[in-house]
Every structure is written in C-alpha cells, then in structure tokens.
Amino acid sequence: MQTKRKHKTNDYEIEKITTQELFTLHCKTRRLEMGMIELTSTCNLRCLHCYLGHMTHIASSKKNEITLKEIQKYVDDFADHGCYKIILTGGEPLTRKDFLKIYDYAYTKDFLIFLFTNATLFDSKIASFLKDRKPFLIEPPVYGMTKDTYETVTRVPGSYKKFWDGIHHIKDQSLPLGLKFIVLQQNKHELFDFIRFCKEKNIPYRVDPFIHPRLNKDRQPYAYRLPPGEAAQLLYQCLGSEKLVNNRTQVFSHCSAGLVNAYISSTGFLRACPSLLELNKKSATNLRKHTFDEARRSLSTRPSFPVEKKCKTCTAFIYCNQCAGKPLLATGNKKAALEYQCRFALAVEKIKKDDIKVF
Ligand code: SF4
Ligand code: SF4
Fold first, then answer.
1. pLDDT tens across 210-250, in order?
2. Which end of the chain, C or N, has fewer beta carbons within 10 A?
3. pTM of the full predicted structure?
C-alpha cells in the first residue's frame, strides 16, 4: 500500500487505503503517522485556563528549551519513523526567534504542517514567508469575540487587537485557517457570535468545553469551566448532537497516542501525548540522553481508555471524550473515567432524548 503526496500543500492523497486500514498498518509496523513538537512552553499571553500556566513566564522554561539543531534532529526522527504530519505547537511557537527556520526545515521534509499559534504574533513577514510554503492548517484559539472578554481570558491588554491583526495577515495570504473556541465561564455568552462569524466568513471551526489541569497537577483551570450540564446544553444548542459524537466506535478502545502519534516536549522528552507524563522515572524518554528508538521503546505501555463497570452498558459513550492522559493528570489514575466528561456525555444523551420526545 502506498501513500503519495502530489504537492507540498493541502493535497496529500492517500490512495486506495482507508483510515482504518492505515491505522491497522501503523499498528502492525509501529510506523508513526503524526509527530507533535512543543517548540517552547513560554507564551506572550497568560490565559486563565492554560495547562502550561505554571511555565509560560518563568525564565528556566526558556533556558532549558530545545535548540534549533535538536528540533531539526527530532523532525528527521519523525520522518524516519513514518510521520507525514507534524504539529508545531507551544506555549506560543512564534515567541521563538528561529521559528521560520524550524518551519522551513519541516516544510522541506515534506510534512503536512499543523501550526498551533495564538496568532497574536503573526505578522506580515511570517504570512508572506508561509504563502509559498503553505501549512496544512493554522488553528488559533478564540477566547472571546469582544475585547473585554478576550482580554479577561488572556490577561494581556492589547492582545485582542493583535489577535485580529494576526487573523487578517493569515487571511490576506489565503493561508488555511481554522478557529477553535475554548468555552469558559468568562466567554460562554459569545459562543453564538463566534459560530455566526465563522459561518459568515466560511471558516472551519470547532468548540472545546474541556479544560484540563496544569501539567504540575494544579486544578485551578477547572474553576473556569462550565458545569457539565450547562456545557452540554450550550454545545447541543450551538452544534447539535451530531457534531458532539466522537469518532470512537466502541466503548473500550485503545488510544492511538504513542502508537501512531508521538509528542516531544520543549525540554526534549518523548511522550505519547502532551498529557501523558511518564510515570516511570527510570524510563529512557529523555531524547537528550537517548536515541529516538530507545525513547520510543521505553514509553509506558500503550494507553487505554478507562475501563469502568458503568461504561460497559453505557450508550452515551459516543459523547464521552475520555482518554488515558487527562485522568492521570486529574486523579493520578489513568484507568478512572473523568467524572466531568461522564456527566457531560450523559447530559447530552438526555437532552437529545428529551428533544426527540417533544417532536
Ligand atoms: S495562548 Fe495557549 S499557551 Fe499561551 S497562555 Fe494561552 S493557552 Fe497558554
Ligand atoms: S458516559 Fe460515563 S458511563 Fe458512559 S462511557 Fe463515558 S464514563 Fe463511562
């Protein structure tokens, strides 16, 4: 079976192979599909809910950051292990002075590039550089549709204007743009405006109500999320139930993290995903001391979704975004289902049933 790229931009083509077949193939061969590199954990914003909030503004974060040379090596490692997609993320990746060199290197290696940036540092120079080296997707988060709301979340005066300037630079060069709305108590009243805007401008969008603890296990970000019932009601009203269905086909399934995806932290550690911190202190996941192969072999066994008795007969699992990494952060136990996700899923199912009854 062959995969083929016709051009270097959005037209990656997978010939005669379904996604499921590709997944099975990767499982058998241990070939990766997508690599993610956290270029930095620092950021120019100070978002209330940020899962890196304890690291974004401390000097040591910058000091221990992976170098350009190391990143180029990791890009090569991902390519050698079969990846054809790469996510460049942060923190805020554009805070790196060598960002364009990093981007260019990944581009010349023929990756489909997903750029996760908050867009506030996206200027005309970056936009023109990317014009001839198009990423697959640039996906900035939207924290509010008004200045007050946006800056209440980011806690940086002037960031709202910079955000929209960045979006205009992206649009001016016709770069592929998607937007994601992170739903918080502080901005929930602007979700409808966000969706209306995306529809009017024909911009693909998604909505994310799931907030996670910081990587140091600080649960403060939970204070900003909506109660699960309210989140379910709001998202159901805005998106309908179809868009809330996750792509899982069975209750108990394995997560693809570490199997077809892998993540490298800004300090050079290989992880299955950003949330799955390595528990085994003796593991060889430090890429500054070990080869990529050694690190990959050393990753803890393949993560599986929570296996709880109540889930066995549950029909709401299609709305339930459980995973192995988030419970580990929140509870220290990767087998425990997160209560928030569970209550959200059950609420969506109930709203849908009640809705049908009315008609
Ligand atoms: S833009 Fe992202 S990385 Fe920066 S503070 Fe906000 S959530 Fe954190
Ligand atoms: S909604 Fe609750 S009971 Fe159902 S699968 Fe998810 S965690 Fe399990």
1. 998 998 889 999 999 999 999 999 999 999 877 888 755 55
2. C
3. 0.88
